[in-house]
Amino acid sequence: MLPDLTRPFALLRREGRDVVEVLAGTVVTVASLADIPDESLSLVPFRQVRERGFDCVDDGTPLSVLRIASRALHPLADVVACLSAVPVVLSGGAFDVSDDDYATIVAEVLRDEIGRGEGSNFVIHRVFEADVDGDPVAAALAVFRRLLERERGAYWTFVVHTGDRTLVGATPERHVSVEDGLVMMNPISGTFRHPGGVPDREAVLRFLTDRKEIDELSMVLDEELKMMATVATEGGQVVGPYLKEMAHLVHTEYLLAGRSALDVRDVLRETMFAPTVVGSPIENACRVVARHERRGRGYYGAVLALIGRDAAGRQTLDAPILIRTADISASGRLRVPVGATLVRHSTPAGEVAETHTKAAGVLAALGLGGPVEVSAPTLLAADPGVQAALVARNATLAPFWLQDHHTRALATPQLAGRRVLIVDAEDTFTGMLHHQLRVLGLDVTLRKHTDVSSVAGFDLVVLGPGPGDPRRIEEPKMAAMRAVAARLLADGTPTLAVCLGHQLLSGLLGLPLRRKANPYQGMQRDIVFFGRPAIVGFYSTFTATHPHDHFSSEYGDVELSRDPANGDVHALRGPTFAGVQFHPESVLSYDGIDLLRAMLTTLLPAAVS
What range(s) does the Chorismate-utilising enzyme C-terminal domain occupy (predicted)? Predict the structure, then answer.
């Protein structure tokens, strides 16, 4: 039943199945995702994110591909019976970064990155390391058995042996899958630790209403919607949230779904990697991670990728995230990487504790976690109170993303066919803007801020969001974006500016910019938008301010929507321009699509035939 353990193999149990897939074949190393063949299982390293042009510390970890020569399905109980129950013995176990040093890194990221507008959340990892006594493959199979017996709720439980390393784990999270053209992603965030068995109901309800946990999930939901808007023809629909219950952990999760005609390798490339293990916005998060971790990630935060064809010859992809995983070298060196999601609410002590929590599941399987509940307890997901708390999370989220919608289904005749250029400032929120503008009927082009040599031929330009301090106008990105904004103002080209674009537009109009004492990163707020109450989502550390609702500029009179308590400018509008500090495209902006339509119809009056 078990394959030849001296040659490459993989054992996989996928969620909801009472069988184990046994794969065997040969292992090759390839350079890029495009080189991955069909009928293969790939170990994709984090360094592969360079294919998207993103920063990383290149540690040389290979993109290893198991070319599947044989595959079989065996009943779960039969496989468990074949696996050894001998305890795994470790020596010299410790984290590679001490608790104190990790707490210092957390404090630096909160202060220097989130506090300076570089992003809304970042994941910083550390690694539990030890030496395995005895045969590494036998040890990994023993861990696999314990995970099969004791873990629950895992998306994949697996062991993969390439010949020179063995990975074993129980990952809770699908990153991306494709079946019959349907792309699915599965953002998970929020972690509640319990000792095993049935978690305390009241404690779970407190977890479900905890602001930090809600904000974490909302932020990764937005980030994965950005990816879905890029790979799915009609964007992604949000389903959920759900409660994911594991042996010692409870998480909250959403499901995203959308249809795509892309090759599955392109889907995989455009979604590298999950914000739950990197941060947001993803491009700058990669820079921040590299800057503070200062070492490679190996396979942590990347994916296993099972690529094949279904009975009808259509491509399939199933790619779980490589977390809750032990990586054991041929010499017996064991590594268990774990990370904590840092947001504006985070504390160094809390995030140190979270890394211990996340390591606990794998360490328990290694025999280091004490007694484990192995029965199948009643789950809480069906509890009416829990279901009500989950449903309540959607009450103020944007209906646009929660409902099934089709391209141009909301098309507005006044906007139909008008040409719009979106200028990308390194935040793929522009992908969601692109999708919403297309749904409203516009003809949309997206370009990076480095590629905008001319705006001729466009009816409107959208200055997009992005990370960074808008006051540092000497920085190349800020200088380039500011130059585009100045040209648009001078030419009178209709302009809509979002977040960073809004801040730069505000500066050109003469408004002072200040850093907020408490960043609005992933914050939903009730505002008054030019006399209209609205619920919107902010991702900002900086804001323009003004003491009045109107002022005169060299480009005409400007009207402001602002916070009367402190003068923070939420939105502005003038003769040929408008700007919003919030993100109308965000899932946090309940009224986002309506506000976007209103601004566009004002900026683009009906075309003269």
Answer: 99-358
Q: Is the dihedral of CA 198, 16, 259, 321 positive or negative?
A: positive
Q: Using alpha carbons, list the distances in angstroms from residue 603 to 48, 375, 417, 501, 575.
A: 42, 62, 15, 16, 8
Angle subtended at Cα 336 by Cα 38 and Cα 287, rounded to the nearest 5 degrees: 75
pLDDT the model gives residue 205: 94
* pLDDT at residue number 34: 97
Q: Are the C-beta atoms of 206 and 362 separated by less than 8 Å?
A: no
pLDDT of residue 608: 41
Contact criterion met (CB below 8 Å) for 578 and 497: yes
Residue 93 has what pLDDT? 87
Q: Residue 594 is encoded by which pair of tokens? A: 């309506």
Say how far apart CA 584 and CA 597 lie, in whole Å: 10
Q: Which two tokens stand for residue 283?
A: 């491009």
Structure tokens at 404: 């099934």
| Cβ-defined contacts of 503-507 (< 8 Å, 24+) | 503/470, 503/540, 503/542, 503/543, 503/544, 503/581, 504/463, 504/470, 504/478, 505/463, 505/572, 505/577, 505/579, 506/544, 506/569, 506/572, 506/579, 507/470, 507/471, 507/473, 507/482, 507/544
* Biggest CA-to-CA distance, the chain: 80
Q: Tokens 């935040």 belong to which residue?
A: 427
Beta strands, E only, 194-272: 237-245, 249-259
Q: Is 14 exposed, middle or buried (0-12, 13-18, 19+ CB in 10 A)?
A: middle
CA 33, CA 30: separation in Å to the nearest integer? 8
User: Cβ distance 196 to 41 under 8 Å?
Assistant: no
| 123, β-bridge pairs | 341
Give me the pLDDT at residue 406, please.
53
User: In the 8-state DSSP scheme, what is residue 586?
Assistant: S
d(CA 48, CA 322) in angstroms, rounded, equals: 14
Rounded Cα distance, 431 and 236, in Å: 11
Among all residues, which ones are annotated catalytic?
499, 583, 585
Alpha carbon 393 to chain centroid, angstroms:
18
Locate 279 and state its tokens: 């941060």
Residue of 144, 90, 132, 141 lying closest to 362 (CA atoms): 144
pLDDT recorded at residue 375: 44
Beta strands 9-14 and 19-30, pairing class? antiparallel
**Alpha helix stretches (DSSP H) within 409-462:** 429-439
CA distance linking residue 118 with residue 286, whole number of Å = 11
Which residues, listed in sequence order, are joined to residue 188 by a DSSP beta bridge?
253
Q: What is the pLDDT, as a whole number, of residue 119?
A: 87
Mean pLDDT of the chain: 92
Q: How many other C-beta atoms are found inside a 10 Å radius of the C-beta of residue 238?
A: 22
Looking at residue 317, its pLDDT comes to 98
